Request: fold
Amino acid sequence: MTEEEAQGWLSERGWWEGEVGDRLRRFVALVLDEADRQNLISAGSREHIWARHVVDSAQLLTLLPCDAAAEGLWIDLGTGAGFPGMVIACLRTAPTRLIELRPLRAAFLERASADLDLAHVEVNAVKVEKVELSTPAKVISARAYAPLDKLLGHAHHLSDEETVWLLPKGRNGEKELAIARRDWQAVFHVEQSFTDPDSVIVTAQALRRLVDQAPVRKAQNLRKNWRKT
Reply:
């Protein structure tokens, strides 16, 4: 996807004109300015920021039912430079919580939220495992945070049966999903990314951890051995 195609994609969805487009353009300017001081995005992606970062983030909204896209708490894990979490916050007005442990990046997200007047955004500079919620998240996203099985282990306490997980992955996405299925059950789907033919988005709902079968198997083996004696 070229930069022109990315901007056209946003325009088709009403996200290029008006206040939303203004916020996105201002946010991109903030990222590029801050990237001169800290390594927010790679040098090679600066000229492709709309396709590789903005649309790559915004496409997550198109995978949600309308009510989930518009309402409820959205939590983004390891937000970094603001992708996808800050882009999502520019596109919707419902509560958005950005989890970013690195102090410099968390400080940037705080400044960007204030500059863009995004009062519905909260930045937490803590480990994901230590985040506490009064009610489960409606949506959880994470881009380049951790392998899928590790990610689910860190953040499952933030979800319930209704939570939708939107997890962009690279070419190893399906392999990560196969590993995660050993310990997790959910309604999983793999969607093709709009911006990169080698990337996918793993979606999940009704997530629950599978019961560890190792103690059960050990007890069964002990009973078998006891019967043989």
Q: What stands out?
A: The beta strands are 74-77, 96-99, 121-124, 139-142, 164-169, 184-192, 200-209. The two ends are 68 Å apart (CA to CA). The chain has a mean pLDDT of 90. Residues 141 and 185 are 18 Å apart (CA to CA).
